[in-house]
Amino acid sequence: MKSKIEEKREFFVSEILRWYEKNGEFYPWRTEKDPFKILLSEILLRKTDRKKVAVVYPKISEYFGSPIKIVNTDIEKLEEFLKPLGLYKERARQLKQGAEFILNKFDGRIPENLNDLLKIPGVGKYTANAVLCFAYKKNVPLIDANLIRILKRFFNLTPNKSRERDDPIFWKFINDTIPTDNIKEFYYGILDFSNQICRPKNPKCAECPLITFCSYYKMHRKFRD
Questions:
Q1: pLDDT in the model for residue 165
Q2: What is the full DSSP assignment across the chain?
Q3: Where do the domains of the chain lie, and which CATH numbers do they carry?
């Protein structure tokens, strides 16, 4: 017999996947299969709006869609392409250093393991796991503020650390929760769900398919009724 938490986890995953199938947003990098372009998109998406990235991504991925193209491009030209996203000098420097490292150490190929990915300049744990998930379909945790917010609300989780994304509670919990199939769709669903429904402020609980078992909704329902 399944425990209540197991049933709640299964409900959570199935509803996120079902919601994403009907309401998922389209972004050009989500159809990519090239591991380098997926890494490129993750660097572009840092600290900026997804819609801004969607405008420039097609041209950037065409011009700079491989390590050798970036290495052979003047950094000033690379910066020019990245200007609409902000932090363009930092992004250009990271892409240059990362591309050179990938060419020199990995013969231009993107590694399929966490340790090697973390050696690439500018690649942290989230970016490395994003590449493993979206490029290689590996079941790895992708902990960010959006997922933390949803987990805290739905499961009533309480962090033990002020920097919540470093809390082992969340790492273990999401490891025990993520599906073995449809891993990409699950995380894309979390991203879109956090943007459309479970927003930081004024969440749209009335439109949420999770409210049946949502701890946050139960605790705040009296203020809505």
A1: 79
A2: ---HHHHHHHHHHHHHHHHHHHHPPP-GGGG---HHHHHHHHHHTTTS-HHHHHHHHHHHHHHS-SHHHHHTS-HHHHHHHHGGGS-HHHHHHHHHHHHHHHHHHHTTPPPSSHHHHTTSTT--HHHHHHHHHHTT--------HHHHHHHHHHH----SSSSGGG-HHHHHHHHHHS-SS-HHHHHHHHHHHHHHTS-SSS--GGG-TTTTT-HHHHHHGGGT-
A3: 4-25+140-223 (1.10.1670.10), 33-134 (1.10.340.30)
